[in-house]
Amino acid sequence: xxxxxxxxxxxxxxxxxxxxxxxxxxxxxxxxxxxxxxxxxxxxxxxxxxxxxxxxxxxxxxxxxxxxxxxxxxxxxxxxxxxxxxxx
Length: 88
What we know:
By secondary structure, the chain is an alpha+beta fold. It has helices at about 15-25, 35-45; strands at about 5-10, 25-30, 50. Strand 1 (about 5-10), helix 1 and strand 2 (about 25-30) form a beta-alpha-beta unit.
């Protein structure tokens, strides 16, 4: 079973990444706290703010980190289907 990505939920985002995601037609939402499940639930309830100029991180790598690790695999090495439906 294949699922299309239609949205990205993130706590911060650089301008170049935002441009790439916007050009790909993805919706970008801000959520800097809580668990992944809480963020998904907030998106389903239309409680997340869309990313805009006010919440894009200025400049390259200002946070100085190397990410959270895990290679985007989620908990236990797997990413669970969020149950989001593609809008087109």
